[in-house]
Amino acid sequence: MYVIPKPFKEERGQGFFVFDSSVKISAELPIISSMLNAFCKADVPKGDKTVEFVRGETEHDYELAVTEKSVTATAATDEGLFHAAVTLIQLIICADGADARIPVCKISDKPRFAYRGLMIDVCRHFFGVETVKKMIDVMSVFKFNYLHMHLSDDQGFRLQIDAMPKLHGHASKRAQTCGDRKPHGGYYTKAQIAELVKYAAERFVRIIPEIDLPGHTRAIVSAYPELSCSGKQTDVATWFGIHSKVLCVGKDTTYDALEKIIGETADMFPCAYFHLGGDEVPKLEWEKCPDCGKVMEENGLDDYEKLQGYFTNRVIKMLSERGKTPILWNEALFSDMLDKNAVVQYWEGGKATAARVAQSVRDENRKVVVSCVRPYYLDYPYGFSSLKSAYMFEPCLESFGEQGAKGVLGVECPIWTEHVATEEKLFTQVFPRAIAVAESGWSQGKKDYADFEDRLLKVVKLLRSAGISYKPVGKCNPNPITGAMQMIAFGIKAASKLDRDSARSARSAQQHKKKK
User: CA of 135: how far to CAs of 85, 204, 315, 332, in Å?
Assistant: First the structure.
């Protein structure tokens, strides 16, 4: 049957249920009624065929029973009923003919991982509420349950913070982007965040905010220079790469400011998770800062990775006081002192990092979200990460071992937007590769790419009907020559948009890790 992600168990019977305008739909959840009634005409007399969603005990997330006269969805939770509904919608859309002929069947379904995420970077290029809603719509149909929003970076801060109004008044705008002389900006008001959180919750998607700390904070220190080591004025970054202007971790005023930022952000997002970033932190400013030096001396910290660890754990305490579980990029492990309750998002492919993550998962019972650059970073060309590679990738890495594999919380595919400036480009980069990741996050059993592609060719009708741009499936697995040309073009473009000091900052971010 044409369903993605592939259900845990499916049994095919004889005959079909014809879903047409005469079907009677019974569902207490308004979102389910709304989605399914979109396929029916209100003025058509209803017949004896029924589609019913009922709460009931089941060992699965949901069960869907289709006969020639009825469709019955059973689940113990509203979320399970919603998942049954989106499975049914895929069956309707993928059916051939004027009326949807759904095969008689029984589907028993449940997810492999508890965490099935997609990340959108709205800092490098800002995307408004309606674009985010479209993303949530598609995510929910493929049973993603976490939208990670990267809300702060060198090139912009995207949240209204009442206690520090310069963050949205100043830090949300930059003068230009990589020399184009066109101002760029935008931020979400608290009312807009409330709207997005509600919209996502109705579709059983939780929104995780990310305030990237202590690096990637040039926009923050542009608004409040006193939070940097030097205190000198700087601008919101207009070029990409790794910037040396970061938060001073030796000043009490930095932690006072973060109490305000963390507090207001936590209030806006009810999700249990809160992302603190922690990646690519150059230590150039810290190395010559007396305040940072004093903190190191007072706390017996013998290197700058431990200084970052000290900072991170102080901020994690702010989150724990608000009932939040922190997530951090894998660089946070290199201090050897990361709070054991923090979830690590594994993105970097180097052997040293892989070993460190695996050790932490095994020895510290660390939970990890797998987001390896290759093949899960969707901003890269299809020649770097093809649709097939995204599908075939196994999140429970061999280096984790059997015990460590139990620590894999789930998967997440990020879309960074340095080179993604339009909604069309955004969705074309994300889809259909994210659909392959959705299947890895939900489905169990041996992978069969030919079977997946066969289902996908039908299911992409859903994207077309929703007006969502996507890469044609036939172009998602380029041959080696085409793929190499894509990567060369991407590399040239990326290099042309890097900040001139980025290489020096990147070396600083790496050198302390290598010492570990």
Answer: 18, 13, 30, 29
Can you tell me the distance from the alpha carbon of 330 to that of 156, in angstroms, rounded to the nearest whole number? 23
Q: How many CB atoms lie within 10 A of CB 422?
A: 13
Token pair 């009825």 is at which residue?
70
On the question of pLDDT at 44 being above 70, the answer is no
Give residues with Cβ within 8 angstroms of 41, minimum separation 6.
21
pTM value surpassing 0.85: yes
Q: What number of CA atoms fall less than 13 Å from residue 352's CA on the CB side? A: 10
Asked if residue 274 lies in contact with residue 324, where contact means CB atoms within 8 angstroms, the answer is yes
Residue-level pLDDT at 354: 87
As a whole number of angstroms, the distance between CA 426 and CA 411 comes to 20
Query: Region 142-151: what's the mean pLDDT?
Result: 98
List CB contacts of 249: < 8 A, sequence separation 6 or more.
Answer: 214, 286, 292, 295, 307, 308, 310, 311
In whole angstroms, give the CA distance from residue 460 to residue 479: 22
Place of tokens 């017949």: 47
Q: Is the separation of the CB atoms in 413 and 371 below 8 Å?
A: yes
Q: Decide: 306 and 240 in contact? Cβ < 8 Å.
A: no
- Distance CA(217)–CA(119), nearest Å, equals 19
SS3 content of the chain, % helix, strand, coil (to 5): 40, 20, 40
318 token code pair: 């702010």
Q: What is the mean pLDDT of the chain?
A: 94
Apex 150 CA angle, 147 and 152, nearest 5: 155
Contact 439, 5 (CB under 8 A): yes
Which position has the token pair 């879903």? 19
DSSP-derived letter for residue 51 is: E
Positive or negative CA dihedral for 33, 34, 35, 37?
positive
What's the CA gap between 5 and 94, in Å, rounded?
14
Whose tokens are 């390896």? That residue is 372
- Per-residue b or e along 231-258, where b marks 16 or more CB atoms closer than 10 Å to that residue's CB: eeebebbbbbbbbbbbbbbbbeebbebb
Percentage of the chain beyond pLDDT 70 is 96
Q: For residue 410, what are the β-bridge partners?
A: 115, 369
